[in-house]
Design brief:
Blueprint: H1 9-17, E1 54-58, E2 64-66, H2 68-72, E3 77-84, E4 107-116, H3 117-124, E5 132-143, E6 146-155, H4 156-159, E7 165-170, E8 173-174, E9 184-186, E10 199-205, H5 212-215, E11 219-220, E12 229-230, E13 237-241, E14 245-246, E15 253-255, E16 258-267, E17 273-279, E18 287-288, E19 290-291, E20 302-310, E21 314-324, E22 347-353
């Protein structure tokens, strides 16, 4: 199948390896592990938990080398966090960037447990000239013509935030292999690529990291030649759990006339969610939705709901949009970029009222 005719075989290979979260699961506070979105850059490495170690080195006074039992023996912290792929919504852009063809389902909320990274940094005695913290995973592959381990970095200030974890559990059980067993980085509020899986090394640097995933990958650029703006925190988004029942192929919804409760979740890594609005006429008018308290904590999505009097038979287009406390809001239409990143355009759901 050629690109002119639709999705390529290469993209189908990616789609078969990775998966999104069915949007009806938005009704759950915490996403069941098997339904949490999944993106695997290269291969799932085979890890022997008995011989695996986490090494912490570089510009430190004391280098550390810890096995899994040692990490589990340290004071633990639990964070409920919504994680979203930077490419979520990519397949809805025109022209469509060629990569993992996400629609809107590349998201999930997990209950993560592990060690606060800053506790280990304090134990290692970070040198005064450190600016960046480099995280290295065990997954290896070729991208941009470069053979590489998957590596990302954070500034020392970002890495030292209290909710940044070295996570060894998800939803009360050890990390599954596909989610980074035995250890992964969790940086709440940042797009998924930041949360390095199969973590094996943390290196303290006195200069910025310039590896592929940091300097070239995950940048908002209009052409391949642009330097672009690096991605970091998740832009605000609201998604609804589609009401009614679906058509098998089109996924368009059918529901009976009467009062219908529309519900969904909203989140933003830039600031707490302030409001969600719902439209039942394809964005011509908007009404405020009811926003539940942030019971799961700052980094988890918030439930919202809206009672719609679906009295008029026929076809309707439902939409929802979120705004955070810093004034960041969802775009009405997609904003194109080469990688298809950060497309937080308003979701639209077609329903037929009978």
């Amino acid at each position: 199948m050629t690109e002119e005719n639709g999705i390529s075989l290469e993209e189908l290979q990616l789609a078969a390896r990775n998966h999104g979260m069915p949007l009806e699961v938005l009704r759950e506070d915490v996403t069941p592990i098997g339904l949490h979105y999944l993106l695997i850059h290269y291969d799932i490495p085979q890890v022997d938990a008995d011989t695996w170690r986490l090494d912490l080195d570089g510009r430190v006074g004391t280098e550390l080398s810890l096995d899994l039992d040692a990490l589990r023996g340290l004071p633990a912290r639990e964070v409920v966090a919504t994680m979203e792929c930077a490419g979520n919504g990519r397949a809805r852009l025109e022209p469509r960037p060629v990569s993992q063809p996400w629609l809107l389902e590349a998201v999930g909320t997990g209950r993560w447990r592990g060690v606060a990274l800053r506790d280990l940094l304090e134990q290692a005695q970070v040198e005064a000239d450190v600016t960046d913290v480099l995280f290295t995973g065990l997954d290896r592959g070729i991208e941009g013509g470069e053979e590489q381990l998957f590596q990302r970095s954070l500034s020392l200030a970002d890495a030292s935030e209290p909710d940044v974890l070295l996570a060894y559990e998800l939803n009360g059980v050890p990390l599954p292999p596909q989610h980074g067993f035995p250890l992964r980085l969790l940086v709440p509020g940042w797009y998924g690529m930041t949360n390095v899986k199969w973590l094996t090394r943390i290196t303290l640097l006195d200069e910025p990291f310039t590896g592929y995933q940091q300097a070239r990958g995950y940048h908002l650029r209009q052409t391949d030649e642009d330097e672009g703006e690096p991605l970091s925190r998740i832009h605000p988004r609201s998604l609804m759990a589609p009401p009614g029942i679906p058509d098998f192929m089109t996924r368009e919804r059918t529901l009976h006339a009467g009062t219908v409760t529309i519900e969904g979740r909203a989140w933003s890594g830039l600031a707490p969610v302030a409001a969600v609005e719902v439209s039942t006429d394809d964005g011509a008018t908007w009404d405020a939705a009811q926003l539940d308290p942030p019971e799961l904590g700052r980094w988890a999505w918030r439930r919202w709901s809206y009672d719609w009097n679906a009295a008029e038979p026929g076809r309707h287009v439902l939409a929802c949009r979120a705004r955070d406390e810093a004034g960041n809001a969802q775009a009405t239409e997609p904003r194109w970029n080469v990688g298809g990143y950060a497309n937080n355009a308003v979701q639209r759901v077609v329903v037929t009222v009978e």
